[in-house]
Each structure stands twice: as C-alpha cells, then as structure tokens.
Amino acid sequence: MRLLVVNAGSSSLKLRVLDAADATVFERSLEWPKGAEFPAGALDGVPPVDAAAHRVVHGGEEFRSAVWIDDGVRARLAALTELAPLHQPRALAAIDALSDIRAAACFDTAFHATLSPGAATYALPAEWPRRRFGFHGLSHAYAARRAAELAGADARDLRIASCHLGAGASLAAVAGGRSVDTTMGFTPLDGLVMASRAGSVDPGLLLWLAEHRGVPVAELSDALEHRSGLTGLAGTGDMRELLGRDDGQARLALDVYVHRLRAGIAAMAAAMGGLDVLAFTGGVGEHAPAVRAAAAAGLAFLGVALDEHRNAAATSDAAIGADGAAVRAVVVTAREDLEMASQVRTLQ
Predict the structure, then answer these.
(1) Distance (Å, whole) CA 321 – CA 77
(2) Could you please report the per-residue DSSP string of 246-301?
(3) At 340, phi and psi to the nearest 5?
(4) Is the whole model's pTM more than 0.85, yes or no?
(5) Is 108 a catalytic residue?
(6) Per annotation, catalytic residue among 108, 181, 190, 337
(7) What contacts 279, CB < 8 A, 6 or more positions away?
(8) C-alpha angle with apex 319: 314 to 325, nearest 5 degrees?
(9) What is the per-residue pLDDT across 233-272, written as a single tens digit (0 to 9) for each?
C-alpha cells in the first residue's frame, strides 16, 4: 500500500508519500495560512496513492485507535473541534481536500488511552468532564520505540521519558511500551511551556481575571492559545531566536521553560518508579542542544548525564548520554508518519 501521510499541525502542513517499504518517495512542508482553509496548490505533484493517513489531534473518549473515515466519523471529529480549536479544523480541511482518496484518521490521543484511572482523571464534580486525554501520542509512540532501538533494548523492558518539544510540547512516561502518564490533559493547553501556549496555569488566576478584571472568555482563550508561553514572556515563540538573544526577557523565558521541563521529566520518572531512557524529539528537542543540556543539568539525581560533544553534534537519531550514565539519553528524529503508516497498514 502506497500511503499519503498528512500531518496538519497548528502552524504547518506536512505531506509525505511512503511506498510499501515505508521509503519516502515524495514530501512537502508548507506554512499553514491564516484560517482553516487547505493551502492552495498543496497537492500539486503528489504521486498516485492507495490511501491517506491523517493526523487528528483529538479523538475524544470514542476514538482509541486508527479508523477509516466515513461521513459519520467525520461528523464526530468535527464535534470535537471545541477541544482542539487550533488543530481540529485544519485536520478536517485536509480530510475534505482529499475526500476522493480512501483515508484513515490516526489520533494523537489514542496512545494515552492506556493511562490508569488515577492518572487520567481530574478531581472534579462527576457531572463535569474529568478525563485527561494527553496528546502528541503519535510522536511519543514512535519516539519511545526508536529510543529503545537506539538504546539497544526492547521498549517493553524499559522506562522511557519521551520529550516532544516543538511549537507544542509535552512529555510522556512510557513503561513497558505503554503510556502511563503525560503532561497535556483535556486539551493541548496543559503541561509544559510552549511557543504560544501557557501550559499549566493556576485556574484560580483565570477565574480572578474573569471576575475582577472582566476579561471575557474569548480573550482568555485567545491569550492562552496564541499570546502566552515563550511568546508571552519574550515576544517570540521561536526557540532559535531566544537562544541567540542576551536580554532579560529571553533569559526569563528560557529559565521558565527549562524549569517546567525538568520538573516534568522528574514527574514522568516518578510515575514509572525510575528512568532508563530519556528521549528528545520535535523541532526543539532535535535541534536545540542547549535546551537538552539545561534540562539534563538538573536531573543528575535520576542518573541523567549528557556527553557535551555528543549532545552538541546530534541533530538526528543519536545517543547523547555520557559514558557510564545510569540513564541512556538519545535524540530521536520525529517520524509521526511512520507511526501513522504502521497503524493504517493494520486496518482491515
């Protein structure tokens, strides 16, 4: 089966055609224009394929594995838009643009369906939504499997902290090949500091803003999604730019980012009762050795130690841990497309 893998992210559209052996025969990456409209000309020159695999961020309670898309599935995906307003409309636009091709939806939430009730439940009234879904599951699933290969072991025998660090960012605790904890929650807003998203915030602060400052819900939503995170702290969500600056705002933004990242990795280790492998993936995870080094510098108590030269040189699949370190540290090239292809090929 020749597959067109469609990754409609919050800021970009990535297309990749994989042959039956998962070799890449075509790829294209585009910036997504403002709005949810599918970019004009995005499909020009795409070779014939047998099926398409669409990354869909939110599968809600219902979708816990990949599924072929029909009108009913599309309608149920659209109903989940309010839970992932940055991503779901763009995934739907891509699905509609390719409606003449048999297509499957692969869900970022599905990998975290294995969370225990204790890890997956908010302490809220029973009549309210209480489920923590988690996201970036396609990336975490692939990263954990590839990290185990780089460590020369079977993922089923390891406790892996997977760090997906990009415009969106999250961590996953993967023990025995299964997700047991993660940092995102009911929506992709929770957890780590991100390029423009706030990550974890005291809900009391938001209630205070609404009650005492009269900030409307729409403005709160826009600020939390688009004007917070690194952007809110330093005026840009571009990690490359921040690492090149030497001013108070940039230093504060990096300090906050790394503080949350270290604490999150330690929490993932606690959820697994220890740590065997630390994996970095995503745009920042793969291409910002300074961020990897800063995060690892506070995790020596877990057995994490990076080799300075290996870390500085690594931009693709590579081991970056110091010799003799108890925890193996690796960089994994993000390949959500391979995870999606694997899932679609198993569908009947």
Answers:
(1) 41
(2) -SHHHHHHHHHHHHHHHHHHHHHHHHHTS-SEEEEEHHHHHH-HHHHHHHHHT-GG
(3) -65, -45
(4) yes
(5) yes
(6) 108
(7) 143, 144, 146, 147, 160, 161, 162, 163, 329, 330, 331, 332
(8) 125
(9) 999 999 999 999 999 999 999 999 999 999 999 999 999 9
